[in-house]
Amino acid sequence: MRHDETGGAETVGSPDPVDVRIAGRLAELRAERGWSLGELADRSGVSRSTLSRAERAETSATAALLNRLCHVYGKTMSRLLSEVEAEPAPVLRADEQPVWEDRASGFVRRSVSPPHPALRGELVEGRLAVGADIAYDRPPVAGLEQHIWVLEGALEVTAEDTGHHLGAGDCLRLRVWGPTRFRCAGDEDVRYVLAVVLP
Questions:
Q1: pLDDT along the chain (199 residues), means of 10
Q2: 17, 28, 93, 142: most buried by Cβ count inside 10 Å?
Q3: Residue 74's CB: how many other CB atoms inside 10 A?
């Protein structure tokens, strides 16, 4: 490992697993705020190239770099490090997957692979009852990547004012920037898988 002039330590060989988890959390924190690398560079005084390498675990973040970023994100370093200490469980048994039901709209959501600070993606199983219609005014993170795969029934997804009719086996891939709508479009319940990936 050797240090560069911008506050990172360049990794040689495979990156340390903790460095990988820190990198993932740093990328997630920036995405949560909708900031570009340039905006974060302006706020932190750290070069774009160093920030980019730190978020990809190509460099091992130094204490000085983490301190600057913690200041920008309003976190203590101990809090940041505590968020990346634990590895995500490799297997989530069916009875451990959280299920949430919105009875008013006829929507059931199972977190098959819930979000984790060390991971960029999550997997959700959605079920919409006949006639169910759910609208979201914005994504939780701008530019969120979604893959919607219908397992049973028919689903109407509207994004960017464009409607997409999906039948069993169909998959819609998109980045979400604005409002979206999910509607059960058939005469039976629809079941689908939603894969979500942070930008």
A1: 41 71 91 94 94 91 85 81 76 92 90 83 95 89 92 97 97 95 97 93
A2: 28
A3: 8
Cα angle value 70/88/40 (rounded, 5°): 25
Angstrom distance (rounded) from CA 34 to CA 178: 13
* DSSP per position, 9-34: EE--SSPPHHHHHHHHHHHHHHHHHT
What is the layout of strands, in order, in the sheet containing 155-159?
A: 133-136, 180-184, 155-159, 162-166
Do residues 24 and 122 touch, judged by C-beta distance below 8 A? no
**Among candidate residues 84, 38, 42, the one with its CA nearest the CA of residue 61:** 84
Secondary-structure percent of the chain, ordered helix, strand, coil, rounded to 5 = 25, 35, 40
DSSP β-bridge partners for residue 176: 144
- Tell me the whole-structure pTM to 2 decimals: 0.62
Question: Which of 53, 92, 51, 87 has the alpha carbon at shortest distance from 69?
Answer: 51
